[in-house]
User: Fold this.
Amino acid sequence: MSDNEYPVSVAVRRPDGSVEQVRVGTAVRSGEGFVLTLGELLIGGEARAPAARQAAPRAPVTAGANAGPLPTVFPNYGRSKGAPISGASPSDLEYYANGARRSLADSSKARWHDKERALLAAIEAEVARQGGGGGGGGGFDEPPPHSDFDMPPPDES
Assistant:
């Protein structure tokens, strides 16, 4: 895949409540926009058997009584912004979990607490799925969060 091509995926919610990112095509930069090339799609057809890598079935998870489904991607900040939560590295999961915990501890951010609770629940579910225990953390003695400027330069090869 060249530097101006990007994979395009959609989040598919399975009957067991799990969410899987499914690649559906490729976006290629064209001027100031993109040209989207989709692979073969079947809408409304019979689903194929789940992949063998699927673990035990899970019940749908929500963040609370009035909440909808949990988010499937990280928020639009940090080094993994917009990336799928499922399959994320433990360090990314801990980074975003700590951010959510800090926001939840700040009463001036009460407007976003429902969203942060849902994000934290999704992250904790992924940590549990990966078999990690997670130690909580999130103290003020931790280093500052990553920013876009912390990312390594793109590989020019």
About this structure: Residues 53-57, 134-140 have pLDDT under 50 and may be disordered. Helices lie at 90-105, 113-129. Strands lie at 5-13, 19-30, 33-38.
